[in-house]
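Consider the tokenized backbone below.
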């Protein structure tokens, strides 16, 4: 498998990166492509990386804007690209297959609310199409320990500790290689279980020791390193670090707890497992 970091900024897009988005691809003649989160601004680097029509599935770890809001732009492309039939009686191209979206319950309603705008005083309001995300996407609710197949990849969701329903995602390819994405979370047993023996652990580290005291929200570098050690992962990649945090401090915290290789995720960086 190949993992590419597309959006790595924590909490909102930074000056050098969009918000959360990662691409997992199999190294096959016809690759399986899974997009992990599609946060604010992430549709731009995603389009530079691949043809959007080649996406096998999207997984949204949770429904905070920095992890899902560019689904609105993806909906526009699905619905209004003139190459594809968008529900009108005139077929201008090939009927598009809906993209599978695995997300916490309520994702379709959440995204519809974010996209829909009342017509107000518009003099042409009668020509406005209804907002219907089911036209573009097939939503599947995530749940703790849900296991599903996308192409040649096996995925499993683990409920983790964040103020809204959030899932870490474990991805295993046909050869048994494992990539785990933490989503947003604090240190918890479910995260350790998700990351167990992973070849690569892509882990958020938005908080800093001695500065951020809230618990049940985000990991510090130290706690991310401790999870990596307890899960016996082979390599750790830290991500979702906000602009007000020094990446080297967070990496140093992690290195105090985890003795394996540690990297900082940067846009367009990639790893193969």
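A designed sequence for it:
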């Amino acid at each position: 498998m190949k993992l590419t970091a597309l959006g790595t900024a924590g909490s909102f897009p930074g000056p050098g990166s969009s918000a959360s988005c990662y691409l997992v691809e199999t190294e096959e003649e016809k690759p399986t492509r899974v997009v992990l989160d599609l946060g604010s601004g992430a549709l731009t680097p995603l389009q530079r990386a691949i043809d959007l029509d080649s996406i096998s599935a999207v997984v949204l770890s949770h429904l905070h804007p920095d992890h899902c809001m560019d689904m609105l732009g993806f909906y526009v492309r699905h619905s209004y690209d003139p190459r594809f039939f968008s529900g009108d009686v005139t077929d201008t191209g090939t009927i598009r297959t809906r993209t599978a979206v695995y997300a916490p319950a309520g994702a379709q309603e959440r995204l519809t609310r974010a996209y829909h705008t009342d017509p107000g005083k518009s003099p042409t309001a009668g020509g406005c199409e209804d907002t219907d995300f089911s036209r573009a996407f097939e939503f599947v609710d995530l749940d703790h320990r849900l296991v599903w197949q996308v192409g040649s990849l096996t995925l499993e969701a683990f409920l983790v500790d964040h103020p809204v329903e959030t899932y870490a995602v474990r991805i295993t390819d046909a050869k048994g290689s494992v990539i785990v994405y933490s989503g947003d979370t604090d240190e918890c047993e479910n995260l350790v279980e998700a990351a167990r023996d992973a070849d690569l652990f892509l882990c958020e580290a938005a908080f800093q020791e001695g500065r951020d005291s809230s618990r049940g929200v985000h990991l510090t570098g130290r706690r991310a390193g401790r999870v990596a050690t307890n899960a016996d992962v082979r390599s750790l990649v830290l991500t979702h670090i906000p602009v007000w945090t020094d990446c080297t401090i967070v990496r140093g915290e992690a290195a105090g707890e985890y003795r394996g290789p540690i990297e900082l995720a940067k846009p367009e960086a990639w790893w193969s497992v």
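The longest strand covers residues 153-159.
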